[in-house]
């Protein structure tokens, strides 16, 4: 079974994906890390983020096992990731790796922007997680402060709005809910309530699957 979770920056899809994977014993891939990894590789090599050919080569060479989540999680890397994620060749280079992951025999949860629309349109469960920009900025602000990044709430909100516009406006696999996705607005939900809502969506989908 494949669970596709999409949504804008800091909507809570990563935490939700992780919890669902633990609950159902599935593998979990946070696909944002792939784009963050490509951006990191360019910056480490001293190359500009706008260099599409180098970004594509970095995407082709990306090694899942080598991604250091801690180094990739910062605010600056989210912004950088959304620049390289707009290049169609970078996206194309990462498709197979994601589809292979989705075929894990135990089941898989993938979260990102285009899982339900482009990577796994056949996913049995598609959830589009949203929350207001202000709520998402407040969550991301708390997370960054915990990481020791000293940044103002207004800066985080501006970053989120800019990233929403870039991710939704790009031509290649823009951020968009699949037609058959269930919307989960977490503005007024804590993680427990969002998790329970998502579990029941998955349970309902499981009940309608053919046995075996
Ligand atoms: O956690 P947050 O939502 O801030 O970021 P992320 O999910 O790690 O994604 C970082 C950036 O990678 C996004 O702003 C997107 O531009 C890009 N991305 C994408 O294009 N497609 C995906 N499936 C996942 C991320």
Please give the alpha-carbon distance between the first and last residues: 11 Å
Can you identify the CATH class? Answer: Alpha Beta
Q: What pattern of helices and strands is seen along the backbone?
A: EHEHHHHHEHEHHEH
**Average pLDDT metric:** 95
- In percent terms, what proportion of residues is strand? 5-15%
Radius of gyration: 17 Å
In total, the number of strands is: 5
CATH topology: Rossmann fold
**Can you list the ligands bound to this structure?**
cytidine-5'-diphosphate
Q: Architecture, CATH level 2?
A: 3-Layer(aba) Sandwich
Structural class: alpha/beta
Strand order of the largest sheet: 2-3-1-4-5
Main beta sheet: 5 strands, parallel
Helical content band: 40-55%
Unreliable stretches (pLDDT < 50, length at least 5) are none
Shape: globular
DSSP summary: helix tally: 10
Can you tell me the CATH superfamily?
P-loop containing nucleotide triphosphate hydrolases
How many domain units?
1
Question: How would you explain this protein's 3D organization?
Answer:
This protein has 212 residues and is α/β, with parallel strands linked by helices. The chain starts with a strand and ends in a 5-residue tail after the last helix. The protein has a single domain, classed as Rossmann fold. The longest helix is centred in the C-terminal third of the chain and has 17 residues, at 153-169. The model has no long low-confidence stretch (mean pLDDT 95). Helix content is 55%, strand content 11%. It contains 10 helices and 5 strands, in the order E-H-E-H-H-H-H-H-E-H-E-H-H-E-H. The protein has a 5-stranded parallel beta sheet, with helices on both faces. It has helices spanning 13-24, 32-44, 52-60, 69-72, 75-84, 88-102, 115-119, 133-146, 153-169, 191-207, and strands at residues 2-6, 27-30, 108-112, 125-130, 182-185.
